[in-house]
Design goal:
- It is a single chain.
- By secondary structure, this protein is an alpha+beta fold.
- It has helices spanning 2-7, 12-107, 137-142, 146-155, 159-166, 219-227, 267-275, 318-328, 364-437, 452-475, and strands spanning 125-127, 131-135, 174-180, 184-190, 200-203, 231-232, 236-237, 243-253, 256-266, 284-288, 294-297, 333-339, 342-351, 356-363.
Length: 476
């Protein structure tokens, strides 16, 4: 192909045309290359700035989200710990009053008149808020002496206090027991009011279980007798089935330890208080006792089997064990811990009056979800922006190509006209020279281009004049 082009003989007009058209085409190609390169630079710049902006925005919002949720968790943990602590401390204050009242009665019996309380075996129904007396199986087997009957009648003086105190627990399923070390129990039950304000608590048929009831074997009694102070039990199974928790305290007679009083509540209300303020879909709250054991939780099985062991301070997971030790020590903090290949924010605060600790857990992925969403939306927006740029470039390229084809046609026509205008004097000169060469010495070349071609035409005219004179002289 190149050899054919080299051997191709072109006249001046064709060469001029090729030169002009080639120069225009080359200019267009350079412009296209420069434009395409500029587009690539713009695309890369937009992509790079978009990635940097997305990272900065994600980091900033993620840091803000993390800081905000840590502050919120810390605040909620402290408030919930304080609220539940006060609730339980209020129950403790009531138990202290009962214990002191019982001690006063037994230590100063001469100040009180006998006050008989109905025995459970004599009742068909037990109504909420009404006191009754229960005897343990061991006491029934050994028999009740006149002295013990007199003591029980004296203890009956606390019944009015129990009835008055029970009104403070109308929203609970609760009982207020006074259990003697000698085997008798004075009790008032409380149930949430439905219809009849008193509500039938137990019927005679259900009372059949009470002959086997031994108050001295109940967890609250044994714990208070062991610790000899105000105590709060872990949740345990009540006599009627549901789990309950009890605040108990020993009372004394002139010989020393005489029995235990308490306020025992079903755990439903405690669970509700613990569950209030749960943050997020993956969050849950819990309460840890002084032995490092989870005694209340909104979702015990959610995170790990580690939460099922007795003492979390001995947990295999070091994060859990360290956090549990700090909680038992009564500290307040917000930590990021790993559990079961996931990360959680743990906020905890002490419940100082009862010696427990309140904790709140929230999965980190949920905290960072808004930041990831913003990152995704920003990334999508930048992708859309780049797609728009590409579409605009393609559209512009198509328009430019169409315009280039049109301009090439225009320039081709202009190039032909320009080439013809440039080569026309040469063609006129060539025809004139051929005519002179044919013998027409009278031929005059009339070319007015103002350049070398016009000068050459003038020279030819002078030459023909001189040649004509020469031939005339030669003929003479």
């Amino acid at each position: 192909m190149l050899d054919k082009l080299k051997n191709l003989k072109l006249n001046i007009r064709q060469r001029v045309l090729l030169l002009i058209f080639g120069a225009c085409l080359f200019t267009f190609l350079v412009m296209i290359v420069v434009s395409f390169h500029s587009f690539l630079d713009i695309r890369d710049s937009v992509g790079g700035e978009g990635t940097l902006l997305n990272k900065r925005l994600t980091d900033s919002f993620g840091q803000f989200s993390e800081t905000s949720i840590k502050e919120r968790l810390a605040e909620n943990a402290e408030l919930r710990a304080l609220y539940i602590d006060r609730e339980l401390a209020g129950i403790g204050d009531d138990v202290k009053v009962l214990a002191n009242s019982m001690s006063n009665i037994l230590q100063s019996p001469e100040r009180y008149n006998p006050h008989k309380v109905a025995e459970l075996q004599e009742l068909t129904d037990i109504y909420a808020g009404e006191p009754y007396m229960v005897y343990s199986p061991a006491l029934l087997r050994q028999g009740i002496s006149a002295e013990l009957l007199h003591e029980m009648d004296l203890v009956g003086n606390i019944a009015d206090t129990l009835v008055a105190l029970s009104k403070n627990y109308q929203g609970y399923q609760a009982s207020i027991p006074v259990a003697s070390r000698k085997g008798y129990l004075l009790c008032v039950d409380v149930i949430p009011s439905i219809g009849d304000s008193r509500g039938t608590y137990l019927t005679k048929e259900r009372n059949q279980a009470f002959p086997t009831y031994e108050p001295r074997e109940r967890p609250w009694y044994k714990l208070a007798e062991k610790e000899m102070r105000l105590v709060y039990t872990d949740p345990y199974e009540s006599t009627d089935g549901p789990m309950e928790i009890c605040c108990a305290m020993p009372y004394y007679d002139n010989d020393g330890f005489a029995g235990v009083v308490g306020v025992c509540c079903h755990t439903d209300e405690i669970y509700r208080q613990v569950a209030d303020g749960v943050i997020g879909e993956t969050g849950f709250n819990f309460v840890m006792n002084a032995e490092g054991k989870i005694i209340f939780s909104t979702d015990m099985g959610y995170v790990s089997t580690e939460f099922g062991i007795n003492d979390l301070r001995q947990a295999y997971d070091t994060d859990i064990a360290q956090a549990a030790r700090r909680m038992v020590d009564g500290e307040t903090d917000v930590l990021l811990i790993g559990v079961d290949d996931k990360e959680y924010y743990l906020a905890f605060a002490p419940m100082q009056k009862v010696g427990w600790s309140f904790g709140m857990l929230l999965e980190k992925d949920e905290v960072m979800a808004p930041a990831r969403q913003i990152s995704k939306e920003t990334s999508d927006a930048m992708d859309n922006f780049q797609a728009i740029i590409r579409e605009d470039f393609v559209e512009s390229a198509i328009k430019a190509a169409l315009l280039m084809v049109l301009l090439i046609g225009v320039f081709f026509g202009l190039s032909r006209a320009a080439a013809g205008r440039i080569t026309q004097p040469i063609s006129t000169l060539s025809e004139g020279v051929r005519e002179i060469a044919a013998g027409n010495l009278d031929k005059k070349l009339d070319i007015r281009t103002g350049d070398e071609i016009e000068h050459l035409a003038t020279c030819f005219n002078a030459m023909t004049d001189e040649l004509k004179i020469y031939m005339t002289n030669l003929a003479k």
